[in-house]
Amino acid sequence: MPSRLRAVLDANAAAGTKSMGLFLTNGFPDPDSTLPLLHAIDEAGADFIELGMPFSDPLGEGLPIQRSSARALSHGVRLEDSFETVRRFRETSETPVLLMGYINPVLRYGISNFCAEAVSSGVDGLILPDLPPGEAGLLSAEAAKAGLDVVYLIAPNSTDERIRAIDDLATGFVYAVSVTGLTGADLGGINAVTAYLRRARALVQDNRLLVGFGIRNHDDAAQLSVETDGFIVGSALLNRIESIWDAVHPAPMADRLEAVKAFVRELKTGHAVV
To answer: 16, 36, 54, 60: least surrounded by Cβ within 10 Å?
Structure first.
């Protein structure tokens, strides 16, 4: 029986619909706003959500996600708080949630304890970009025991052999990083990115293939997802939330959430209102 994440991705692919994943850092823009934002993103059409576990040294992140982590940490947000956020989100939603973060805090928490707590909270999968697939045996085993999917990343400079190996290891989907750079980076030449994604599409046989990094709007998403099963947006969403929350005269919470929903709908459909 497929996992909740895999079931959603498979159903969308069967229907000819591209899946949309959205990234939000836990505790951003402040701890009280994260849960309402998760619900807003969900209601606006997210097929799955990546919840970032704030970390002081996010090696693969550009400035928007770095700022979001620093902001969350300044509020005292800890790894354990991500479990509670997902637990509360699960009270009203079945949308798949993946925890995204870095391996050191997970090792400190204890891999077995982390996986058990994650699944008991309602988490569906994990993305740990700094964990080399070749060294992920213990995590993969504990995740499988707990019933968690594990997503691994490929990049434009990944060899065919490595892409096939990652496809063998991944259980949720294969995450195609669009550029050899940080989150939020410019896409550069679209033809080169498309050629890389076409190559990856031919090599990834066991999983759905989704693309992320550098997607700022619906046009970017539409172009890149031609060769994939969907797309993931993080930095552009965080930038939009930051601008809404940090306005000189912030709107009421309900209006701010509606503005985020409009942005998410536009990402997915090209129209702010569905």
So the answer is: 16
